[in-house]
Amino acid sequence: MTKVVYKNYQHALTLMFAIHEINKNPTLLPNITLGLHIYDNQFYARITYATILDLLFTQQRNVPNYKCDRGKDVLSVIGGLSLDASIQMATILSIYKIPQLTYGAFETTFSGKSEFASLYHVAPKVSTHQTGIVRLLLHFRWTWIGVIVSKDDGGESFLQILMPLLMQNNICVVFRERIEIIGNAQLGSHAENMKKFPEIFLSADVNVTVISGDFQSLLALTIVLGIHEFVAMSYVGRVWITSPQWDFTNSISALGFCRKTFHGTLSFLAHTNEVPEFRNFLQNLKLDKTLEHFLCFFWISVFQCCFNESHFTGCEKCTGEEKLEHLPRNHFEMEMTGQSYMIYNVVYAVAHALHAMYLSRPRRLPEKSKSEHMNVQSWQVHSFLKNIHFNNGAGHEVLFENEALSTGYDIINWVTFSNQSFLKVRVGKISSSQEFTIDEKAIVWNGRFKEMLPHSKCVESCNFGHSRTVKKDQPVCCYDCTPCPEDMISNKTDADDCIKCPEDQYPNRNKDQCIPKVITFLSYQEPLGIVLAFLAIFFVVITSVTIQIFVKNWDTPIVKANNRTLTCVLLMSILLCYLSSLLLIGKPGKVSCLLHQSAFGIIFSVAVSCLFAKTITVVLAFIATQPGNAMRKWLRRNISHSIVLSGSLIQVGLCLAWLSTSPPFPDVDMHSKAGQIVVKCNEGSVTMFYSVLGYMGFLATIGFAIAFPARKLPDTFNEAKFITFSLLIFCSVWISFIPAYLSTKGKNTVAVEVFAILASNTGILACIFLPKCYIIVLRSDLNSRKLLREKKNY
Questions:
Q1: For residue 350, how many C-alpha atoms fall within 13 Å in the half-sphere facing its CB?
Q2: Which end of the chain, N or C, is less surrounded by CB atoms within 10 Å?
Q3: Are residues 415 and 374 in the same domain?
Q4: For 608-627, what is the mean pLDDT?
Q5: Taking 70 as the threshold, does the pLDDT of residue 629 lie above it?
Q6: Three-class SS of residue 467?
Q7: CATH number at residue 553
Q8: Is residue 298 part of a domain?
């Protein structure tokens, strides 16, 4: 017995409704009445050829390539729900250049080719549907799926478009099955062969399966799944994502089961708008003689009655009170379905194309004879169907662009009930411009899933702060989760790679967010800056007191004994060194960066040159005491002043060269300290920076080399031993400074430099002047000429 797909009768009734509306419309094709022929290929592509020939040749004399008794009123053909049927129809219709408008939701590459020049695919693009599938999978993070398609050209076309999209988005297809299309006679045997088919699903541990096919191609699958619904309850309940061609509720009406299996299914159906008059049309449908033959079998099946008792024995005659609205929804829907809505729009497209064609003709004929003498040929309609824009009977805007309907798909959630009724809930959409929306709160999932959202993944998702690492010899969906490196984050689930934060930001503890770095420098408000500034000011005060002591005792022997001028210059340079360290504390600026490095280098060079000159003075003074020694004349020439001046000028030259070529400048360091932007002075030329330090080290080394042997020379106030200790401290501090400076980061490098200045400066101050101040203040008895003479005689 032939299976009856009750709901498909709505397609034909929609065609009749659209023709009825157009014929009543006085502004669309006025004074012209459209007619129609309805044919059924009974789901067999082989019957399609005979059906088309019956349409073209009115007296059943089907002679291809001849116009024997050919009807003259066939201006277009609407049909071809499957790809095979569309191609077979186009094979004949293209010969006669009759426009064929197919509304099946499949992608065809035949439109526009010379052998199928009359074929118009006026459904929404299936590529939009497949993009919607991928967007839906990505939205719910379903990356471990199965795919079932019909074993025909439509199924292969579906796979050719879908599979690359899945691969590009790292979605793994665990199994890919093709269902062979079968006839009714083969249904039982084929279903028997497919009894092991559900084992694929059970073994694959897949919760989401994409299905593409129509009622006939998936009939055997429906039967097998229905059988296993009762014998294997563990299988009942998956997330099915179905194509627009397949309405699984047809299987419920035809076979009576699969309710639990497909509860919660998500379908992509062509976008529809409500057509209010359609329900009234169905409610007021009258069974006249023109409809009896067409609806006879349908009426017998759903209402258990017939129009003429002589046709079927034992069949009660229909009363005429039967109403389509009383039928359950799995038999017939009063709302226009997606496929019916496409038929509705296609009929209006043909009508508007004919209307445009009539308007383009010269108006020379009387209005009453217009329809009789137009002599319209079917091939003339093509140019008006290419791109057409109109409003249908419900007032909805319809646009055909490049032989495709410029609209998208609605995402429908199917909710089934125990009485074989169902509810279609619109939960999202994918537009023709690829705009995707979904309301997951409105979705009812299959009862098998205890959690709110089903999962279908090979492994658990990688959380924020981790990235995916694909396992060797494993599918891309099976991966390990690797924590992000120290300076990188990932702020989404299953991130392919971690991303670097901008330079002015750094990762938080969880490595899932970049937060702004704190601007930092050695400031006067923090403890370290306060301590260093206090020490610098304290030693400035000590140095000032020392200067005052020496000025008050300017004419005492201990002050006069070691060149008062050099002593005064040395004290002033020590005072300025302490003050120069304050330039390093606080936010670096252009002026402070230029001053503190050059000032520090020049002032320290003056101090070391003074120590070097004092040492030379001590040595020359000892040698000059010997009778007849020629060195006495060098003491009279103030050689010490020359040493200080020449030693300082060389450093001044180095600093000027530094400032003129690559001077220091304010800079920021964003990488040395995590979470901080360190404002510092960039040395500009590192070579010049270390040249300045190296020159100071050279002076100190030469001074130490001379002072060390001179420390034991007999003299009352011999400074050589104090100079030796001070230069030893100075060299030790600055030799230690270099590795400490290179190893520290951030504002600590500035603190190291300030500490080195304070330490080396204090070493000179303490070693040279502390003993003298002790004598001047506490042991004034030792600060006398008498003691000086006694020591010399001794």
A1: 26
A2: N
A3: no
A4: 70
A5: no
A6: strand
A7: 1.20.1070.10
A8: no
